[in-house]
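User: I'm writing a tutorial on reading structure tokens. Could you give me a worked example: one chain, its sequence, then its tokens, then a sentence or two explaining what the tokens reveal?
Assistant: Sure. Here is the example chain.
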Amino acid sequence: MSEIQIIPASAIAFAVTVAFMVALRPLAKNLGLVDRPGGRKSHVGDVPIIGGLAMFIGIFSGMVVLGIASSTTVGLVFSFFLLVLIGAFDDKYAVPPMIRVLVQVASILIMAYGTGMFLESLGDPFGLGEIKLGAFTLVATLIVAITVVNAYNLVDGVDGLAAILALIALFAVSIVGGMSAMSTSIALIVAGSIFGFLIFNFPVIANRKIRSFMGDAGSTLLGFTIFWVTLGVSQGSEAIISPVVGLWFASIPIYDCLTCFIRRTLSGKSPFQPGRDHFHHTLKRGGFGVRQTLAILAGLQLVYASIAVTAHFYGIPDVVLFAAWSFLGLSQRWVIRAVSKRHRYYMLKCYVEGSLSPYYMKRVRKIL
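And here are its predicted structure tokens:
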């Protein structure tokens, strides 16, 4: 593929997503496909959950324009459709976790066998030579894919966060993959669709009246896409990057997911139940606003993706990259908690001194 082909396809994905974000809004309200405030949700008013549906239609339109119809793309699109369908049902009816996982497994199997892409190699993370998965290829593909899909779902707790993190990963894949790889073409089409969605979801006052969410349909779609495009550039005979490099592209969602999973399991809680122990919750408890939380987590992910891209082009060994990635993962929650506590202390100090503006005075009262 060339830039001449990809740019129009990405533009179509953007335009179609915007069009359907507008068109689906009244339909969502009539069907009750809206997110209502209450409980763990602090937004104001009923917000339509249409981002996943609109992005799916936009991505499909971009792929049609690009003209990459084949057995590979048919399997991929059908996998997308299943994830968006079960996600939309979950947004409306709260589908049990086991049903969602089973549909995710079916989608991954369709993707794997339909596109011929499996997680066959882990690279050389321990410096002992490349680790080929052999008989464990299918199991590893399922485990890693389900982890990434749900990591993006779980991180979607702040306006714009899942979308921005996905954009960073997609652009990182595009930089290392080059314009000739099909994975890159799909990545840029999905990026175009995400930009269309962000018009309605980025946390700014200007779009408050048209604010919409992507819902589980959108977050799982993005997580699945990140997994697939990374697989496309890191596996097989035409692999461009090491799988270890690919880990860095989704660092924040994976760190957040694994941290919550381990903490909940050790405390005797179900790791599949919602909670308030994610990175964005920790930062908000420290007095950071939505845009500040988004900036911190997106900034960290941008740094991690930049490290990975730089390491790829400079040929940094997998063992060094994996050791660094693991260290950051083990310390990430501690760092975020430290930043949150320090900021909370600063805010409370200024509150006592009376040196805060009315806006920040109101925010401090929320965390007291």
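What the tokens reveal: The CA atoms of residues 91 and 184 lie 30 Å apart. The chain is about 70% helix and 0% strand.
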